[in-house]
Each structure stands twice: as structure tokens, then as C-alpha cells.
Amino acid sequence: MVWGEVIQSAHRATNLVIKLVNEPLFGRGNRPVIAILSLSDTMSYISLLLGILRAGFIAFPISHGNSYTAVAQLLSQSEVTHLLFSPEKKVKDIVSAAMNNLSGESTRTDPFFNPEPLSTIDLDDIAVIYHTSDALTSKEQPQTISFGSRDLTGCVIACHAFPMIHAMGLFLLSSVVSTGFILSIFKPGHHVVPSPDNTLESAAVTKSDFIATTPSFVESWSRNPTDAERITKFSGIAGFIIFGGGPLSKEVGDQLTSKGVNIFIVYGLTQTMLVSKFISEPLGEDWEYFEVTPSREAYFMGHGNDEYEQPKTIAQV
Q: pLDDT tens digits, residue range 205-214?
């Protein structure tokens, strides 16, 4: 898709969201919170998310992998005013059970509401609410993220493996609309479940410069000699892999870098967004390390013997 199509799609979504919400554009502190529970394709999801943000509302993507009790808890804790969901039976069952689990709530829609002009947005205000698991209780907790931008420049990044409900999906979305690089995704249409095979094939077809993916996909490619060789030689991919969401086996990383593949770690938290530099200079055999982005100040807990724990507090500089 070209930017003209994306912009029109986002504007149509803005119009739709405002009509469905049927609320005036409130001032700070009174903005509707719009939750999304959907199995839609990436481009449709992006359009809806952009439409919610452009309308001046707060977006809250929720994973369809949650139980109905977890969804009900997130809806209640985040004071969600509206829930948009896709028509798949699995999603509808979760929504139905979650709504039954809530008491004293009501929904309102009006397809005939006239659109209002774009709201004045405070860039330091809440833009999106994401949910993350509490390490102590294992319960899902809402986390707020403000508006912002990322300093990235033009390249093609294949992000087929990342769902839009993940914070990495939001980071890529904020980057593509603020820097102008090209986002490589599955063709709009039915929801496609990403796999190592279709992700690598799609990255090749779109001649992506980088593949943003999960460690499990990287390890799968490394076990297949054809896939491993394809990453190192295909001119579009150019041997650049960006991974996040979990650790990558040292054996796998060392094996790929020895063949000329450049590996970049994306380290971040739902609470802080990106902590590492998104794309630094290739580190070669030192692929396991990353540099903290200059826009963050990280504090490490020392354990002696020159050993430190991961950043515990991240502050905006």
C-alpha cells in the first residue's frame, strides 16, 4: 500500500470511530477509552488504531489470547468506554463472557453521528493503554503510554511476526508514521497466522532490508540450512535480523553471525517502550550486547564481580 491509501484508510477509520462512539471530543481527563479485541489483518488493525488516535481518543489493544476474566479485569481497570471486536466466534465468545462478568455497564452506538473536527492533542498525554503481566501476581495490568516519535529513517522492515497488540507493534507503527520508512506486512485481507516459513517468504518478496521477528523464528531458520543460507545471500534481506520479546540461543546467534548475518537486539518494556537503540552499528560476534538509547537514562543494579542486573528504572532524559 502507498501512503495515499494508508492516509485515506486512517481517515475513514477516524470517521467510523467518531460515529460509533457518539461522544463529543472531551478535554483532558474525560476522553473515551476504546478497546480493540480483533483478529483482523495488520493493515486494518493499523488503520483502526490510527483512527482512534486521530479522533483524540485513547486506544487500548487487547490480546485475544487472554481469558474472558482477564479481559473483563482489563476493561474495568482501564475504565474502557467502548469495545470494538471482530466477528470471529472465538472473539465473540470472549467478549460475551467478559461483558457478562461486568456489572452495571452499558454500551451505546449511533451510526448517524456527524464527525467532529480533529481534537487538539497534548503530546505528553495518554495515547494508548497496553497490558502486561505482573511478575508477582501473574495478573494482567494496564500500562499507559504517551504520544511520541522515534528517530528512524527510510528502509524496509519486515514485521510480519509481530502482532499489533504487542508494544513492538505500536513502536513500529509510531516509527513508520513519524519517520517515513516502509513497513512490510502481510497483504490486507483475512488474518494470517505468522510462521517461520511465511514470514521469511514475505520478507523476501517485499525485498525487506531488515526482518523484525521473534527468537523462535530465528532459531527455526537456523535449523534449516536453506533458510539460513537464504538470509545471508538474499539481496533484499541483506542478512539483517532484529529480534525481541525473549532471549535468543547463544549457539544460534553465534552460528548465524559466523555466516555474516547481522543480529540486533530490541530490548524494551511495556512500561517504558524502547530501551535499546533500535538499529545500531552491526556488532558481529558481540550481537548479545546492546547500547541504551540516548533518550533513556538507565540504572543498573550491581551484584559485584562487574556483574549488573538489567535496567530497573528508566527515566526520560
A: 888 888 888 8
Q: Which CATH class for the 3-140 domain?
A: alpha beta
The owner of cell 540461543 is 249
Q: What class is the 156-309 domain? A: alpha beta
Q: How do residues 247-306 score in pLDDT, each as one tens digit?
A: 899 999 998 888 888 888 888 776 767 777 766 667 788 888 887 775 666 777 777 787
Judged by average pLDDT, the poorest of 2-6, 64-68, 280-284 is: 280-284
